[in-house]
Amino acid sequence: MSYPEAINYLYGLQKYGIKLGLEKTGIILSRLGNPHKDFLSIHVAGTNGKGSVSAMTASVLMVHGFKVGLFTSPHLVSFTERIRINNEQISESDVVSLTEEIRSKISDLKSQIPEPTFFEFVTAMAFLYFSRVCVDWAVIETGMGGRLDATNIITPEVSVITKISYDHKEFLGETLADIAYEKAGIIKKGIPVVSAHQDKEAGEVIAATVKERSSPLFIYGRDFSGELRLSDIEGITFDYFDDSCTITDLHTPLAGEHQIFNACMATKAAMVALNRAAEQQSSRAILLPFSTSALREGLSSTQWHGRLEIVSNNPMIMIDGAHNPDAAKALSEFIKKHLNDYRIILILGIMADKNIHGIMSPLLPVASEIIFTAPDYGRAASPQKLAEIALHMGFPSRIANSVRDAIEMAKNLSSSLHHSITPSLILITGSFYTIGEAMEMLGKKAVLGTLRETI
Fold it and tell me: Looking at the structure, do residues 391 and 259 belong to the same domain, yes or no?
């Protein structure tokens, strides 16, 4: 099997859709020798910020001297982005060998369980890979929800719940309480929980769940907090506070004032996890104490693409994966505060099942020019539909039928405005599919085009 053949097989599993539940994953992992029990883990759920928190937490643990696995989704350009060891992506040859091995070992399970979904298979691949290469820690991001997410087979040292808002309502429920119930499903009996400050409805669900499961709860703004010192396109500098310590002048290159919440949660999660592992005297990882200097270096060296990221300087192009109203609002606020001197040429591609009006509302007013497009993915809303909605909102726009065409149109607009004293910024956003395809157009390597999965 070649790498393209392995990727074809994996993407072929998408035809089985999204089927939430743990029984099938448990059976598959049992057949593989329960690799998820071979390493310590941190489990991260939430709506916005869970990827950033996961990346920062993994970086902090790595600088402490641990071998750290990181499992995230979706990828932007290459499938190998999903599974990493100490920030190195899994190799294509390992993807091939693990795909063949797992496929072979579960081939006789067809009479017992349905075919695995894409995400179930890839979760098993990540756990088997982490076991094989003997990671000390793995930071595991949920795909969707939490309670019935395939990753919820693990028992972590700490569970992390980032800001909860409305998303994937067709799977997780219509109310914030329903969605919070699914996210809080990662909380295990007696396992500490680190949470963002939540809206009242979601916070009450988390509080009830930790009480029921006797789990210690640490909430941003109550048990730990941060104070912003500096925010610009190069990242943020901040101070961290909790009952046990004050750590000043921390920096992360992830831009946006909202990253202070994510950075503080990553800090607290690493502290709690390392302290718990030491208390448990785990034999599965070397025991190294929490280090302020390692925290500082880990946060400052975090790499996480697709979040307020400048990917070109000539012309200036920024990408951001804002794919729901809260993320779009955070992006809009960043633009108004830090890029107000730029003429914004907005390229927007949104999935049809998202809250289109909610994503557009904060973004369209900051743009001088608006280009609607659609990534090469079946769930994408048509540019024509997006343009109609925008016009009803009072914003005229242009249409490009592909992300490539949208980028060329934006570049031409930028060139025509070059004589202006106001510099131009091309902002590409609305979906991870859109920015992933844009990254391919701008020279990043991909295999088999833009096939991705929501979880």
Answer: no
In a domain, 455, yes or no: no
Both 106 and 239 in a single domain?
yes
Distance between CA atoms of 133 and 266, rounded to whole angstroms?
24
Domain harbouring 315, CATH code: 3.90.190.20
b/e per residue 120-142 (b: at least 16 CB within 10 A): bbbbbbbbbbbbeeebbbbbbbb
pTM for this structure? Answer: 0.91
Single-letter code of the amino acid located at 451? L
Band of residue 15 on the pLDDT scale cut at 50, 70, 90: confident
HSE (side-chain half, CA atoms, 13 Å) at 76? 21
**Confidence at residue 451, expressed as pLDDT on a 0 to 100 scale:** 40
Provide the pLDDT for residue 282.
55
Tokens linked to 45: 């759920």
Cα torsion for 306, 151, 86, 2, to the nearest 10°? Answer: -80
pLDDT in tens, 370-411: 999 999 988 899 999 999 999 999 999 999 999 999 999 999
Question: CB 194: neighbour CB atoms within 10 A?
Answer: 30
Q: Are residue 177 and residue 314 in the same domain, yes or no?
A: no
- Looking at the fold, whether 47 and 178 belong to one and the same domain comes out as yes
Question: In this structure, what are the phi and psi dihedrals at residue 10, rounded to the nearest 5 degrees?
Answer: -60, -45
Q: How many CA atoms lie within 13 A of 296 on its CB side?
A: 9
Strand partners, 354: none
Strand order in the sheet with 316-319: 309-313, 316-319, 424-429, 343-348, 369-372, 398-399
- DSSP code of residue 448: S
Q: Is 250 a residue whose pLDDT tops 70?
A: yes
C-beta separation of 213 from 193 below 8 A: no
CATH classification at residue 119 = 3.40.1190.10
Residue 261 neighbours by CB under 8 Å, 6+ apart: 49, 162, 163, 196, 197, 220, 226
Amino acid in position 314:
N
8 Å CB contact between 194 and 159: yes
Q: How many domains does the chain have?
A: 2
> How many angstroms separate the CA atoms of 74 and 80, rounded?
11
Domain interval for residue 331: 309-441
CA distance 231 to 235: 6
Mean pLDDT over the full length of the chain: 92
Tokens of residue 226, six digits: 């941060």
Instruction: Compare 140 and 171 and report the one with higher pLDDT.
Output: 140
